[in-house]
Amino acid sequence: SKKLKGNQAVLFHDELHQHLERRLYIEENLKNAAENDEIFFMYQPQVNARTGKIIGFEVLSRWKSAKFGWISPVEFIHIAEESGHIADLTRKMMKESFAFFQKLRTDCGFSGFLSINLSSKLLTDPGFAEEVRTLYEQMNWPKETLEIEITESVPLFSSEHVFDNLEDFRKQGICVAVDDFGTGYSALSYLHDFPLDKIKVDKQFVDQIDKSSRGEALLSSILHLANSLDLLVIAEGVETKRQLDWLVSRDCFRIQGYYYYRPLGEKEVTALFEKTET
Ligand code: C2E
Ligand code: CA
Ligand code: CA
Ligand code: CA
């Protein structure tokens, strides 16, 4: 058994080493990856289940690295936040997705919105909302077609600048959505104190449909809560017809999930409109 322990230690050492090596690689190569277009963007449609029409898209970052292949945004966004690269990545995401949507509007007549994920780190920067405004104004971007998604987090609610930025966004006519609603920061008072327009109900709640009556009760309460606070709702991670029907029968008709669409590349998005719209 001594031998076994020794092997386990070696194994652990190897795993730790690999983990650190990967992390270091990500940290050191993020900037280059963005410059060399190893990082690009996919767009996941959001659908009005009542009409079947696409109402908007969420832009999601992707990294295909030379060394490790696909690296998930769950992994690299977090590292980008810690290593200070998140501002550059976000700027790239905005520039590219704004330009693409500009084309989608003029070439394909798309009139829905684009939703972007903003790290709470960025919102603690006092001039951030202003910077976003400058970006879309340079591109003649109709601002009422922009949404931002923020996650519940401690930094989000502990900096006064966050509040000012959110207020600034709303004054600009930009919809502010709480992403992964119900999974982060636990106090709900912020729903009432903060300038918010929409909640995105996390997949973990949607997954409870047909599985657990307590889970369904919780999801129902979230929908009621949103309704009574006059917040819009979208459900994410909807994968089945049963989930869809359950949600729609409770008036939650904004839907994002594999049931309708996975995240799509620019060509696939364009093709969508060439086929169905106009
Ligand atoms: P998120 O904002 O909650 O995005 C939804 C994630 O769920 C996406 O994963 C999407 O591909 C996935 N998803 C959508 N529908 C379904 C479904 O029906 N079933 C399942 N199993 N999954 C579904 P993705 O693209 O891997 O992104 C993961 C997270 O990374 C995002 O979670 C977001 O928090 C973060 N992220 C991605 N791009 C960016 C970015 O540009 N900036 C920031 N700050 N965060 C980003
Ligand atoms: Ca999101
Ligand atoms: Ca989410
Ligand atoms: Ca998430």
Automatic annotation (TrEMBL):
<feature type="domain" description="EAL">
    <location>
        <begin position="23"/>
        <end position="277"/>
    </location>
</feature>
<protein>
    <submittedName>
        <fullName>GGDEF domain-containing protein</fullName>
    </submittedName>
</protein>
